[in-house]
Amino acid sequence: MATLRPSSTGWALFLALLTILLCLVVPGEMVKHNNFKKCDQSGFCKRNRAYANSASNQGSSWSAPYHLDSSSVKFSNGQLLGTIVKTIENNEKVNLPLTVSFLESGVTRVTVDEEKRIKGDIELRHESKVRKERYNEAAKWTIVGGLELSSTAELVKETEAGVTKVFYGPNNKFQAIIRHSPFEVHFQRDGETHIQLNDKGFLNMEHWRPKVENPDREDNDSKDNVDDSTWWEESFGGNTDSKPRGPESVAMDITFPGYSHVFGIPEHADSLSLKETRGGDGHHTEPYRMYNSDVFEYELNSPMTLYGSIPFMQAHRKGSTVGVFWLNAAETWVDIVKTKASTNPLALGVSGKTSTQTHWFSEAGQLDVFVFLGPTPQDLSRTYGELTGYTQLPQHFAIGYHQCRWNYVTDEDVKDVDSKFDMYQIPYDVIWLDLEYTDQKKYFTWDPLTFPDPDGMQKQLDDSERKLVVIIDPHIKNEANYPIVEDMKSKGLAVKNKEGNIYDGWCWPGSSHWVDCFNPAAMSWWTTLFKYDKFKGTHPNMFIWNDMNEPSVFNGPETTMPKDNIHHGGWEHRDVHNVNGMTFVNATFNAMLERKRGEIRRPFILTRSFYAGTQRIGAMWTGDNQANWDHLAASLPMVLNNGIAGFPFAGADVGGFFGNPSKELLTRWYQTGIFYPFFRAHAHIDTRRREPYLAGEPHMSIITQALHLRYQLLPAWYTAFQQASVDGSPIVRPQYYVHPDDEAGFAIDDQLYLGSTGLLAKPVVTEGASSVDVYLADDEQYYDYFDYTVYQGAGKKHTVQAPLEKVPILMQGGHIIPRKDRPRRSSGLMKWDPFTLVVALDRNGQADGTLYVDDGETYDYQNGAYIHRRFSFSSSSLSSEDIGAKGTKTGQYLKTMAGVRVEKIIIVGAPAEWEGKSSVLVLEEGSHTGSQASLQWFAKQGGKAAYAVVKDPGVSIGNLWKIDFS
Q: Which residues are in the Glycosyl hydrolase family 31 C-terminal domain (predicted)?
């Protein structure tokens, strides 16, 4: 849902006038830049950029003021402790405790804090009661594992003065070289430097200092021409930030020597390979910003902040992928500059022609950086996932198609839409309700006039195994006699302003308060609100959408809360801003788990705001996009980038939120949307209705075909989700991730692979296009998904015909793709349907693939209630083997699935010697004799591969079996 920015008065008139304007004006690039800061309007950003400029301009004469006290260094049990000393004016010293933790996973964590703030030896201004420490609880919300210290990390005896070396990682092949004066760290793998911390000397921890109300130039930093105008307060958008702790930003440069491509740090509407930010042709002039914000009609090709933040960056080159995770929940900016490789003789083992230098700066908190040395993209996915958690394995329905708009206006409207999907035989799984379902914008209520029968509405949906999602936002209407807000206020569960009173701001309901989910009592209270007897009219097939949780505040600075608001524990909002939205989703997740005692189902929650770790508890979408071709194209790198940053359950509003798409654009967007892990159509309240059955022919039939393709491949999608849930792999993967040694593909972000299936899609995102050029990195055979046309040739583009009715998809040889071919109204009705296996043979006549199946709703899979099979084809034989682990519920689950069989096997690239063969031998576990199944062989025609079809081999999907084609 979009944010409309009213003043604190004239609410009704404002909305009425704006609604009229929106109806008359076609949305364009309407982001209001004046509502959001640029770097030179953000005090700490401007200061740290100036600091970097000063250091760079001085070159070799620059003397960084940060030195590791050699006498303080201690190493024990995989952890190095010490004190970095910052020398300031008058030769005064500031002590900054350093901890370097070498983890069992091979990841290193570097943390720097400030002694005075730790001890509370500072004075707060304005009689503030906030905490004196630097914020140190981001890990509490983000990190869930992987912190075990290495048992083999080894301190190397001193070989030169002022240098400490530690070997660590797999077989101790990693090395950290810590230079004391000035402080910097080089991380090596196999003797080659891959990551450098503070190599440029941009480390800058703004230490605490008292405010001198009437400064004497001889005693004040201003004698060094330091601009202190934003140290003590800062105004923007009519709000003045009181800054009771004074300046406390933290910054450091991180260099990737020999790496020309860096990815990650979502969310930005930009290319997958991140651009430089210090100007130049095609580059940005602003740093990438991470400050979760409700950006109205965001622009493309921009480093501007959006709704979520994951400060995880990867650098990639041929043969190596490395990365850093900057654990900080405050406003953060990142500069990127690419240069020729360093000639610094201290940068041992550096190779490559181009290096990427990054400069990170956050407004508050500790310096807390995790360093990943790979060496593969999969290694980074796994080790980052060990720290922050792997993506949730969602309920099966959640990977189907979601139908939404702002708003379905009545419960009869919902039922009518549901019936029309059936009438036109269009599958879908979920229908959504935006905030108009509530009674005057009060959450946990139903409008008695427009939604008088929510029970009947949900019952009709349940008859077709369909679900309902309703929106619940963190702003609670401040209205007398509304039990929710009265309860929240009486129990002290709301966010407070800087004076310690309940914060009041404006959002959809008008005057609102915000639940403070940092407060454990608030989380417990929130859990009670979702129980069936409390949120009346809700059923087990109802799930939740958490929107506006950046948080969006219409009359707040940058459309959010003031930074000096106060959260539970005495932390300022500035400390926790980027993790705020996740705490709200976390509370909702726990609430959905406990709706009814003894009835535990996997929650489904969609969130707009997110941070590292949110992947454990929900899905995300890219927010309020626009109905134009550029936004369609931009959705692909945005979704791909989220996937490699550890949050793969991602999607974009199909059709575009703002505006009315042409029928061609709508059709092509559906054909693209079937490759989003989260697949939802959504639209603004003032757009025309655009349910698929309203598109008219031939567009309705083409959209329906695309939807059927999504549903046909649900077994492959669910298997990819399961893999992501155990090893962090992206569900849809960019070119470099699948072909990490092909340099020509590193920047490609308009085609994608589905999990490990070998399915390669290149959606049409250009108006009027009737073909696409698909880049193939390897010399394997690729087959057109629909007619088996063969494409082959490494390192070049191949033209694939793509008239409006066709989705360009290729199958990479060497893969076996599971699918279900019987069209149904919803995924729930497909549960007992048989499977089809598509075997796409490689040049050697081999292929393999996997299939994962469970009940799709409970957590019984954690006790073995699932089927996990590996299919292999070689030597003219196709076999199925069990790769799952047994558990207490394995046997019972296999019994329930005994009747689910394989009904068809398609062999693409079938050998010519099968011509004339009419049957195959089927051997199945538990059968004493083999059986025969029919085989049809089809010769290749023109550029199309030969293929064969085995009909009804009769094997159970959960059994051990083998089919002999010889």
A: 728-817
